[in-house]
Write a structure and sequence with these properties.
Length: about 280
């Protein structure tokens, strides 16, 4: 009607409708999923253009179902463990994991390092698969599926940020970044420069940024539209992955990422200029 308007993200345009209630819950979960920190009721209500009481009712129901968690009894919420469990089931049937694992096994054997696969969830990374390398006399270094990788810090985190929207990049870099070790890169200007390099060269590396003694080399998995689908990386001791890594290690990781990306119609690595 003339003279009236509805909020763009209105959460429940048809009160009392079961379908609209499901849609409302999904929009709320989607918003929580895109936030890199637990979010308060007030902020959620403001973003969705709805009364706090209505948002609180939805959150109460979702909390009871186990798909959202309330942080320390306060008014801030995040996605819950139940969603992760459902996601794990979905990933078992998700093409990326299924397609990637044979290439990851080949990379493990070529690089003689453990190989990890992560996907972007908002501006964070979620580790969804690992192919471990073990050798006599050497400690096994790997990652645990379900581990969340923070944005900006680490090779995986920077690759996700490099392919994120500018607004998301600005949001992350505007806030102080946590230094996990003395080697963590937290300077916004330095990270911005690194993000540009990542998009041009299609790889990144990190040495002792999240854990002392551990290094990684990572490359993006892209689809035919240049969208980031995932990140494949090798992880190992600084004894075997130097800072900077060898050209051979970079090429090994990129070949793996290129092979997986090609299955999703990406030619990004074909267009990459020879180094």
């Amino acid at each position: 009607m003339a003279g009236t308007s509805e909020p763009e993200n209105t959460i429940e345009p048809k009160p009392g409708s079961t379908i609209q209630s499901v849609e409302a819950s999904w929009r709320l979960l989607d918003l929580l999923g895109r936030s890199h920190i637990p979010t308060g009721v007030t902020e959620l209500a403001k973003t969705l253009g709805e009364p706090k009481a209505k948002i609180h009712r939805h959150l109460t129901t979702l909390k009871r179902l186990g798909v959202v968690e309330q942080i320390h009894g306060g008014d801030r919420y995040r996605l819950g463990w139940k969603l992760y469990q459902l996601g794990q089931v979905a990933f078992e049937h998700f093409d990326l994991k299924t397609i990637a694992e044979p290439f990851m096994a080949r990379l493990r054997d070529e690089a003689t390092q453990s190989v990890l696969l992560a996907i972007p969830t908002g501006i964070e990374g979620l580790l969804i698969a690992n192919v471990d390398y073990a050798a006599a006399g050497q400690p096994k270094i790997s990652g645990v599926p379900g581990t969340v990788v923070p944005p900006g810090v680490s090779s995986t985190g920077r690759i996700i940020l490099a392919f994120a929207k500018p607004a998301q990049q600005n949001e992350v870099l505007a806030a102080p970044l946590k230094a996990y070790t003395r080697r963590s890169i937290t300077d916004p200007a330095t990270i911005k420069e690194r993000l540009q390099q990542i998009r041009e060269r299609l790889y990144d590396y990190a040495s002792e940024e999240l854990t002392l003694g551990i290094s990684t080399v990572a490359a993006p998995i892209l689809d035919g539209n240049g969208r980031l689908l995932g990140i494949v990386s090798i992880v190992g001791s600084v004894q075997f992955i130097a800072d900077p890594p060898s050209q051979l290690q970079i090429e090994q990781v990129q070949r793996c990422a290129a092979a997986i990306s090609a299955r999703f119609a990406s030619t990004a690595y074909e267009d990459l200029s020879p180094r």
